[in-house]
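Module 6 notes. Inverse folding takes a fixed backbone as the condition and produces residue identities as the prediction. Think of it as a translation problem where the source language is geometry and the target language is the twenty amino acids. Below is one complete input and output pair. Work through it position by position during the lab.
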């Protein structure tokens, strides 16, 4: 792919100290556009700046937009590694299909991310818990007011150095079990990474925070009995003698970290099942003393342990309220692979540049 490079005339200093998450952005972005008679063209890296759009742009009215989130890590060997960009590229294509957006070829996705990271290498932090977070996004730009797939799209990749997603880092969090509001339903947009899913989660999340909980454990849209996702992450439940995670049956996003954790657990010989898990089963396991751990998995937080569930007006503590051994060991293993400190047996990492 031919990429035009337009460097900024005013490079900014790389921030030091606490980075937070998603507030500081690098000097450049990657951009492409799509039109019916040309396909994906005009690949370029240019200075970070505002996107100009017509107020009638389709995305502003009909929410035709998808995105991804992945990270680049600087290891102790000073090499920069992208974690599973091919898997993110594949999911980007699937999301595009659900939203009737022309799919970006997987190899173009990977190259665009890699080239931007290579150019912005000085922004990749090396401190524990830090990374360069990458946000590829496609949105409809054709100006029209009519309900149909748009005929023009923009592809942009942003990059921002980040610290831990949660302010308390790996510390366990309390989660509210949501049994009234709905995020997605089977047959809807749950399998796509699109902004509408996140907008639908905000009201319940804010209500949970007012109750003193960090996030929401979503249940199914019909019975509100079957657990689905925790906040914006996939969820795992260690109960009895197995680890269970809800199946990808039409309402749950195919998480890259989810897939990685399942693979690592099976390598250890841990019984992992992708099966429905009910609130009733979780409550019964807690009563029987067989509910060992609950944790979420996702790109931003990697592994996030749950200390308690808010259910039926009371808190169900998980274990002793600290991070369980399974969540801790999985977090350490995934992060170790991402930073090159542990063997990458599956070829998940892609070294950027000369290494």
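Target side of the pair, the amino acids:
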């Amino acid at each position: 792919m031919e990429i035009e490079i337009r460097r900024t005339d005013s490079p900014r200093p790389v921030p030091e100290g606490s980075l937070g998450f998603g507030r500081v952005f690098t000097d450049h972005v990657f951009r492409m556009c799509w039109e019916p008679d040309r396909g994906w063209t005009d690949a370029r890296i240019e200075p970070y700046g505002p996107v100009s759009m017509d107020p009638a742009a389709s995305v502003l009215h009909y929410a035709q937009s998808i995105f991804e989130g992945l990270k680049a890590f600087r290891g102790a060997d000073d090499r920069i590694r992208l974690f599973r960009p091919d898997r993110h590229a594949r999911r980007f294509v699937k999301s595009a299909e659900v939203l009737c957006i022309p799919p970006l070829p997987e190899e173009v996705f990977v190259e665009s991310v890699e080239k931007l990271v290579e150019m912005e290498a000085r922004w990749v932090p090396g401190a524990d818990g830090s990374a360069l977070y990458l946000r590829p996004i496609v949105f409809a730009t054709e100006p029209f007011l009519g309900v149909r797939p748009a005929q023009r799209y923009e592809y942009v990749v942003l990059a921002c150095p980040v610290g831990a997603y949660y302010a308390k880092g790996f510390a366990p969090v309390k989660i509210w079990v949501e049994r009234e509001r709905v995020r997605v339903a089977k047959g809807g947009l749950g399998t796509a990474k699109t902004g509408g899913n996140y907008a639908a989660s905000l009201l319940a999340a804010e209500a949970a925070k007012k109750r003193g909980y960090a996030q929401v454990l979503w249940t199914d849209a019909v019975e509100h009995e079957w657990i689905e996702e925790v906040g914006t992450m996939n969820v795992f439940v260690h109960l009895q003698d197995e680890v269970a995670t809800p199946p990808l049956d039409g309402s749950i996003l195919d998480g890259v970290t989810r897939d990685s954790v399942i693979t690592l657990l099976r390598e250890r010989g841990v019984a992992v099942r992708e099966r429905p898990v009910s609130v009733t089963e979780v409550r019964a396991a807690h009563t029987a003393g067989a509910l060992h751990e609950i944790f979420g998995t996702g790109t931003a937080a990697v592994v996030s342990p749950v200390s308690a569930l808010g259910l039926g007006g009371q808190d169900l503590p998980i274990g002793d309220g600290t991070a369980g051994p399974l969540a801790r060991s999985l977090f350490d293993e995934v992060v170790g692979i991402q930073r090159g400190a542990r063997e990458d047996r599956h070829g998940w990492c892609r070294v950027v540049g000369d290494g």
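Reference fact for the lab report: The mean pLDDT is 95.
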